[in-house]
Amino acid sequence: MEIKSLWPTPVGIGNFNSIELSQYILTNYDLNNVKGEVEGYDIFEDNTSYISNFKNLAYDKFDEYLQETLGKKISDWKSYKMKGWITGHGKDYSMTIHNHSGAHLSGVFYVMAEDKNSGGDIVFSDPRSNANRGYDEEFESMFEKYRHIPKTGEYLIFPSFTYHHVNPYYSKLRICVPVDLYLHGN
């Protein structure tokens, strides 16, 4: 996993094998009528081996991120919960600026993102509210947003407080699975 330090906010970027998961989602989910996390949907309630394997993979990637950034493991906490959902799946999909309040870490797993020239890039904003206030344009590079163009089989992991948005996607199909990790202390 490559760790990029954006401001002092580490964003992990890596790859995973998404072939079986994409085939399973395309076969078993109606992408025209997908429930999201706002409706309380959690993909991990699907107990099939495909989703269980993906849950284990997400756990391992979060664990790796914690080890590389904090020197900790998920098992260092008393308990944890992961919640995931399907999103980013149709033409004109976009997501306004938001963060994942309440979660500790968030990830986006790009199960299917073949059309790289059709928008849909994720853009991270500087989390330091008003940090750029009073600076002239010579300092603009210190506050630049980080724009990432996703690829199939790629994932990003970041602290859940990090504000981000998704620019409009202009192709027919893309499948993303955002996952939130909640860590519960002693």
Key terms for this structure?
186 residues, alpha+beta, 6-stranded antiparallel beta sheet, 4-stranded antiparallel beta sheet, 2 helices, 10 strands, 17% helix, 32% strand, globular
How does this model look, in words?
- The chain is α+β, with helices and mostly antiparallel strands.
- The protein is 17% helix and 32% strand.
- The strands form two sheets. Strands 1-2-8-5-10-3 form a six-stranded antiparallel beta sheet. Strands 4-9-6-7 form a four-stranded antiparallel beta sheet, with no helix packed on it.
- The radius of gyration is 17 Å and the shape is globular.
- The model has no long low-confidence stretch (mean pLDDT 87).
Find the structural class using helix and strand composition. Answer: alpha+beta
Query: If you compute it from the alpha carbons, what radius of gyration comes out, rounded to the nearest whole angstrom?
Result: 17 Å
Share of helical residues? 10-25%
Query: What fraction of the residues are assigned to beta strands by DSSP?
Result: 25-35%
Residue stretches low in confidence (pLDDT < 50, at least 5 long) are: none
User: What topology, given as strand order, has the largest sheet?
Assistant: 1-2-8-5-10-3
Order of helical and strand elements: EEHHEEEEEEEE
Largest sheet: 6 strands, antiparallel
Tell me the number of helical segments per DSSP (H or I, 4 or more residues long). Answer: 2
Give the overall silhouette.
globular
β-strand number: 10
The span between the termini is 29 Å
Overall mean confidence score, pLDDT: 87
